[in-house]
Amino acid sequence: MHEVGLMTSAIDAVLDQARIHGAKRVHRIVLRIGALAGVEPESLRFAFEVVTRDTLAADAELQVDGVPARAYCAACAEEFGVDGGAIMACPRCGQFSGDLRQGRELELFRIEMS
What we know:
Layout: H1 3-20, E1 26-34, H2 41-52, E2 61-67, E3 70-73, E4 78-81, E5 88-89, E6 96-97, E7 100-102, E8 106-113
Parallel strand pairs: 1-2
Antiparallel strand pairs: 1-8, 3-4, 3-7, 5-6
Helix pairs in contact: 1-2
């Protein structure tokens, strides 16, 4: 379960920011996770509970915002939604594209602390 390692890294970054800003408590953490990032949100939530125990983020809320996968068609000069795969066919013209524009995100988007 690589979600524990991912969450450990994210919480380390959160706690570093909390220390830098002199925070006494982390209230909310927002992560953006792409549909094709290979991360299981429920496993990530479980890891969050384990990793934040006995830290400034122990009672924090974890918000996971999903980011849909979108690819770009050079022939149509438009983006389109995709379900997965490395090569996607444009629904408009049928041309194949490997230009994934979003959907692999795994980012610490926001930290709320006091």
